Amino acid sequence: MSAEELGFDPSIKKKKKSKDVAPVSADSETTTVASTEDDDLFSGLKKKKKKSKDKKDTSEEPSADVTDDLSESFEGMKLKKKKKKKVVAADIDEFEKQLQDAGIDESIVNETSKKSDLIPYSQLLDRFYGILKEKNPELAGGQQQKLKIPPPEVLRDGNKKTIFANVQQISQVLQRNPSHLIQYLFAELGTSGSIDGEQRLIIKGRFQSKNIEGVLRRYIQEYVICRTCKSMNTELKREAANRLHFIVCKACGSTKSVTSIRTGFTANVGAMKKKRV
Amino acid sequence: MSNIENLKSFDPFADTGDDETELTNYIHIRIQQRNGRKTLTTVQGLPDEYDLKKILKVIKKDFACNGNIVKDEELGEVIQLQGDQRLKVMEFMVEALGVKKKNIKIHGF
Ligand SMILES: [Zn+2]
């Protein structure tokens, strides 16, 4: 996950480039001070300098002069520092040389310094989603927008009736007229019922919560969800001219006609019983 | 094997069949609760070309259930079966009568 791979922070890239060029430019400025004896020492010290003078290097103007001998590529100022260090850091230099021989070369050191400049990917991603959620919540997953439909509260009323307690609440969440939903429930369940004083629906017959949930799911599929964008933020409108019902989507604006609820054939249970006897 | 399937041209504007206009052709299979835990399955909307009496005879034997045919003024002849036979009826109609599955609508819980 390096800067190049992400192609993200151009400043980091630039820094790296100028780092490579900087020593060359320094070479043109310093011709007299550099001595050949220092060669070995410099090669060891280079790392240190690069680390400590990263910023300085970037400020230097790159020149077209290309010299391969990096050991001679230092300013007088840098040299002075080095000379001071020379005595003290002689042991360290040797150690570093050994490191180099062992295969730990500059590129690795450079990489570590680069890594410290990089903003971690996860942090950037978090930042991106933070901004997206703030400015465009619909694009960021859209999970907060999703309608939460409360599970149907189904109670037994005696032996032959079922109470669907939160019809009103559910039809409100679905933005539908409760009577429309109730009509559908009765048609699908092949039964009838009434609404009690607490606005609960009393259904004739014995039904379990999962039964009602299944019917509710089909109602949502057929009469709530927008066919175009799958949004549940829709309205059911009745066109007076052709007496058709339409789903009007509030999210994408599409309209689609829906079939009216038809009870279909319902056997008269009582009459059948009589016939049999 | 003279005609190769691949070469059949595809008409993107052909009627896909899932239009509202075909709604009248749906076969509705419904369930109703009777007294207690007993249920009733009704099959409505079978095309006229089928002999309902023969179908009922086969179904009654295959599903081991009783049933009868009810004439409804608006909806035509309806097959009534005892118990929840919805899935069996659908399978039977697809396999034995060659009815397309998309033309069958199962209602109920
Ligand atoms: Zn929509």
UniProtKB/TrEMBL annotation, chain A:
Residues 1-73 are annotated as: Disordered. SMART domains: eIF2B_5 (SM00653). It comes from the Eukaryota. Keywords: Initiation factor, Protein biosynthesis. Residues 60-72 have a biased composition (Acidic residues). It holds the Pfam family eIF-5_eIF-2B. One of its GO terms (biological process) is formation of translation preinitiation complex. GO terms for cellular component: eukaryotic translation initiation factor 2 complex. Belongs to the eIF-2-beta/eIF-5 family. This is Translation initiation factor eIF2 subunit beta. It comes from Pichia kluyveri.
TrEMBL record, chain B:
It comes from the Eukaryota. The keyword Metal-binding does not apply. One of its GO terms (biological process) is regulation of translation. Transmembrane segments: none annotated. Keywords: Initiation factor, Protein biosynthesis, Translation regulation. Residues 27-97 form the SUI1 domain. Additional factor that functions in concert with eIF-2 and the initiator tRNA in directing the ribosome to the proper start site of translation. This is Translation initiation factor eIF1. It comes from Pichia kluyveri.
